[in-house]
Amino acid sequence: MEKADLDIAILGLGTAVPPYRIDQADTARRLTEALSDKPDSARWARRIFKQCGVESRYTCEPNLLEAAVDCRYFPQTSAADAPSTAERMRIYKRESVPLALTAARQALSDGGVDAADVTHLITVSCTGQFLPGMDAALVQQMGLAPTVTRIPLNFLGCAAGLKAVCLARQIVSSTTGANVLIVCVELCTLHIQPSGDRESLFAASFFGDGASACVVGAAGPAHRAIFQLGKEHSVLLPDCADEMVWELGNYGFDLYLSPQIPKLIGDLIPAEVERLCGDHKPALWAIHPGGRGIVESLQTRFELTDEQVAPSLGVLRDYGNVSSATILFVLEAIRNQLRENGSERASGIALAFGPGLTAEMIEISYVPTIVGQEQIAGGAYA
C-alpha cells in the first residue's frame, strides 16, 4: 500500500492520574476555613468552587488533602512556609515520569504499536521542567530507540496537547513509516497559590493533575484507526494577549485568566471553525474544557446538544482542567460514548485554547471496526 493510500490517524490512547483524589466540596470547605479572616474571599471561594463544573480532581501532592491548618498551599500559610518554586519542581520531576510512563504504555498497547517502532516522541508540559527531560527518561525506561526524534513542547499552555497532534500529523504525512508517540503530563495543582485574591482562588478551583498519551501513525492492515485526522488550523486571536497569562513566580507559576475568555472564544472561534470546516457542521465536538464557561459558550454559538458536549463537561467534572493533557481525555471519553452507543462512522472537530489567545483545531473522524455483523470502536475498516 502506498503512503498516499494510508489514513493518518490516532491509533492508540492512554490516560493516567495520580493516586490522590481531591473532592471539590471538601476542598471548598477546607479552603473557606483557611480564609476565615477574609470573609469576602471565603464567600467568593465557596461560589466559584460550586459553579465551576468540577466535582473531583486528582493531585500528586498529598499535602493538598490535609486539614486547612496543615496545608502549605492554602492562604493562611506564610510565605516562608509555602513551597518554593524549586521545591515544587522537585516534586514535578519525581512524579511526572511515572504518570507519563503509564499513559504512554497504555497508548502503545491500545494501538498495537511496539515501542521499538516509535520514530518520533513529542513530550508536552507547561507545569514543570527539568533536564535531562521527560523525553530522555521515557526513551530510557520504555526501551525506545536511542535515535528516536525527540520534540519537547514546553510551556505552551492548554492548547499544546492538540498542537502536538497537529504536528504529529504533519510528521506522518511527510515521513514514510513514522509512528509518533505523544505524551502530555501536567501537575497543575503544584501551582496552587497561598493567596486569597480572586485570580488565585479561581485558578485553584478547577485545575487537576494527570497524563495522557496517543500514537499517531498510518492506519492500514497493521494498525486500525480510532480517529482519522484531517485538516488542521492554528490561529493567534487578535488583541487577546493579556487575557490568559502564565508566569514563573517564587512560589510556583502564577496564572491569570480573564473572565472575558468564554465570551471572546464564543465571538471569535465560529469564524475560525468555518475556515477549517467550511459549510459542514461537525457532528463530534472534542472541546478542551478550559472552563465550564468556554464549553457552554461554544454550545450556545454552535447550537450543540447536551450529548455533544457531554464528554467535555464530563472530563471537567471528574478530572478538572488538566491543561495540555485534557484534550486526549476528551477524545477517550468520546470514543467510550460512541462505543456504548454502537455508533457508526462520524466526523467532527477537536478544539483547544491557550495563552495568546491561541486556538488549535483539527478535523477528526471516528472509525468503527466491522467484525462480521458487529461493530466495535477503535479501528479503521479492515
UniProtKB/TrEMBL annotation:
Which residues carry out catalysis? 158
Start and end of every Chalcone/stilbene synthase C-terminal domain? Answer: 235-365
Q: Which CDD domains match?
A: CHS_like (cd00831)
Q: Name one GO molecular function term.
A: acyltransferase activity, transferring groups other than amino-acyl groups
Q: Which InterPro entries match?
A: Chalcone/stilbene_synt_C (IPR012328), Chalcone/stilbene_synt_N (IPR001099), Polyketide_synthase_type-III (IPR011141), Thiolase-like (IPR016039)
List this protein's GO terms for biological process: polyketide biosynthetic process
Assigned protein family: Belongs to the thiolase-like superfamily. Chalcone/stilbene synthases family.
**Protein name (record):** Putative naringenin-chalcone synthase
